Amino acid sequence: MSTLYLLHKPYRMLSQFTDKQARATLADVIAVPGVYAAGRLDYDSEGLLLLSDDGELIHRISHPSHKQPKIYWAQVEGDINDAALKALRQGVTLKDGPTQPAKARRIDPSTIAPRQPAIDPKRHPSTSWLELTISEGRNRQVRRMTAHVGFPTLRLIRVAIGPWRLDGLAPGEWRKETLHAPRAANTPPRQRKTQRTAQQKDQRARPTSKRRKPS
């Protein structure tokens, strides 16, 4: 049994509990001792951050080999077009190599709460929103992907990691979930079968005791 904390990290907050420069940290919004973040979210990004005191669970969530899909909502400069969405779906080549194909679609921003401070409409008169799903975890990957196809990201919100979603959490809010995940110590089926076979052989090899006849 493990405990997982789902936190909506606000804009301009570090994904850590201390900072020598006195910037906002997780300690400002969640006071649970002994927990660590599973992965990170950039200072200027918002959204879902998972925390736990279970090191094995943190590894399963954050390690690239497990390829947890992550869903982002990105507000980009300009009106993103079909050609850009197609390129994102096929994968783009960044400085650190090609990305895997992503899921990309336009979304309606009417249900997305405004950010404080908001995007300046004078500097950015035309913007649009897209939902991007990726299974990689490169540094500032979503921002680099949208910039590569000609639509720089102005605001970025992570809404899901694997099966976990923000689901109504406001910035700075969090909730706790208890997980009953199977442990790696469970014996694989093939090994269990081998063990049963060995036990059966051992039982057949043992001498059987004869009942005494009544005198």
Detailed description of the structure:
The protein has four helices and eleven strands; from the N terminus they run βββαβαββββαβββα. The protein is globular. The longest helix has 17 residues. The C terminus is likely disordered. By secondary structure, the protein is an alpha+beta fold.
Q: What can be said about this structure in brief?
A:
By secondary structure, the protein is α+β, with helices and mostly antiparallel strands.
Mean pLDDT: 86
Q: Biggest sheet: strands, sense, closure?
A: 9 strands, mixed
Sequence of secondary-structure elements: EEEHEHEEEEHEEEH
Specify the overall morphology.
globular
Q: Specify the helix fraction band.
A: 10-25%
Helix count, DSSP H or I runs of 4 or more residues: 4
Q: C-alpha Rg, in Å?
A: 25 Å
Low-confidence stretches: 183-215
Terminal residue distance: 59 Å
User: How many strand elements?
Assistant: 11
Structural class per helix/strand content?
alpha+beta
| Beta strand % | 25-35%
Helices and strands in order:
Elements lengths: L1 E8 L26 E2 L8 E7 L2 H8 L7 E8 L4 H9 L2 E2 L2 E2 L4 E4 L20 E8 L6 H8 L4 E9 L2 E2 L8 E6 L9 H17 L10
Throw out a few tags for this protein:
215 residues; 27% strand; 4 helices; alpha+beta
